[in-house]
Amino acid sequence: ASLDSRKVRKLLRPYGVSLFALNLDLSWDMNRWSRLCGLVLLLSHALMHSANAGFCTPTPGSCWPSRSTFSAWLATLSSTTRVYTPDTTPEFFLSEATSMNLLKSNFPGLIVVPGTEADLRSAMYFASKNRIRVVARCSGHDFNGRSNGRGVMLIKTELLNWTLYDDKTQAISFGSGAMHADIYSALVPYNRVYIGGQSKTVCPAGCLAGGCHGLMSRQYGLGIDSILEIRFALFNGTVITLNRTRNADLFHAYLGAGQNSFGVALSFKAQTYPAPPAILMFDALFDATADNAPGNLLSNFFLNATWFNDMPRELAGNINYEFGSVKVKFVYTGTDYDGTFQKLQPLLESPFTRHVTDPEVFPNMYEVALNLYPPVTDIWARKFITSGFLPQDQEVLDTISSIIVVLFGAQWFDPHEDRDRVAGMEPYLSGLYSLAPTSYSNEFTSWGTYNNVSDWKTRFFSNYDSLLAVKKKYDPCNLMTAKFAVGSDQPTAICSCAPKG
């Protein structure tokens, strides 16, 4: 509340937001802030760039459907489905537009939250008929902004949340709105485990689009390796089944390169595996370098392929590097506790080690997911720094950040600290990419050295040309869209995308 309104107006001036010439009172009630948000959103829509040429966007002179056309379509939807537009719910729009990346303000044209699969198909049909581009998301954890799009129909699948376990085949089916916690919880009574991500609030639908690495991936592979079948909605609402024999090209393309490129996944069927009898977890704090040790912690151990491959396949975890300190969370799903600790002794007794916590034991993967991350972290306050595709103009970053802080924030964060965090990790990127140049598709890399515009296609395991062929086959009018996704650099469609009938 200590913000100076003159400073705010100065920061916003590059955007030509003349409404801030008014006296700005930070004690405004929510109704006044909502009206302000609406005006900002309308301005954002008016400034949409030409990337959507040939498609309909909510801009003056565009082919955006009329209010009566929208009303007629809305009347066909079930009562469980929610549809939001910026003129009626501006505050909801602003919060949705900044999911996971506060500085990528790609405001959608409308937001649809289908309550049924039929309504999701109807939304796809409506979008294709009216040449509206589509972005789908569940939890929206793509840090590079591919969970949203400027002027698109944003389809949120969060209500399509269900699970069904088949005891005969030991496979689990789940809707595209299910989160990892939902699936892990559903499997506890059957003493089975699904191979997915470790965060309880991440949806497999998006995780699988990037491969989906989890705590048991060293034993069973990536999450995509256990997927048996996908029910999939194409750009016009047509539903097809994907597996290793039916529409196999799209099945393999979605699993690893599916970030809003080909259509919308409706549900998945996945193989499960015997759950470990117990899961052990402990933390260790290290110095990245030590005066009495050659090399450094990462090169000697975690980025040393010989050392790491000698560790048991049941050992996994997370590494958090910040300002010369390295915090590692170890997770062990095997039963040879003594043997595993013996193998870890050269690391845990090295000069790099500061502190090692006592192990905690969890009965299943669901409890691990609930306890792996604290309920609140400063990651979310700085979530804009995790993208390597952000503009490198710091004034632009500060300005957009100011908008978010003014509208919803409680404190300022120094952007220079974020730069320092990024700079602290960059020396290790070349080592990481020498081991796996096609890294996990939504991870932060740098401010423009590795994940820059010129090399983004190399992140598709040398298969970009074949993936583009799949894109053109199943989404011929390029209605599905995402930044730095398959087909994102293709000419925008001007063909008639409307389904027949």
TrEMBL record:
<dbReference type="InterPro" id="IPR036318">
    <property type="entry name" value="FAD-bd_PCMH-like_sf"/>
</dbReference>
<dbReference type="GO" id="GO:0016491">
    <property type="term" value="F:oxidoreductase activity"/>
</dbReference>
<dbReference type="Pfam" id="PF08031">
    <property type="entry name" value="BBE"/>
</dbReference>
<dbReference type="GO" id="GO:0071949">
    <property type="term" value="F:FAD binding"/>
</dbReference>
<dbReference type="Pfam" id="PF01565">
    <property type="entry name" value="FAD_binding_4"/>
</dbReference>
<dbReference type="InterPro" id="IPR016169">
    <property type="entry name" value="FAD-bd_PCMH_sub2"/>
</dbReference>
<comment type="similarity">
    <text>Belongs to the oxygen-dependent FAD-linked oxidoreductase family.</text>
</comment>
<feature type="domain" description="FAD-binding PCMH-type">
    <location>
        <begin position="104"/>
        <end position="275"/>
    </location>
</feature>
<dbReference type="InterPro" id="IPR006094">
    <property type="entry name" value="Oxid_FAD_bind_N"/>
</dbReference>
<dbReference type="InterPro" id="IPR016166">
    <property type="entry name" value="FAD-bd_PCMH"/>
</dbReference>
<dbReference type="InterPro" id="IPR050416">
    <property type="entry name" value="FAD-linked_Oxidoreductase"/>
</dbReference>
<keyword id="KW-0274">FAD</keyword>
<protein>
    <recommendedName>
        <fullName>FAD-binding PCMH-type domain-containing protein</fullName>
    </recommendedName>
</protein>
<keyword id="KW-0560">Oxidoreductase</keyword>
<dbReference type="InterPro" id="IPR012951">
    <property type="entry name" value="BBE"/>
</dbReference>
<keyword id="KW-0285">Flavoprotein</keyword>
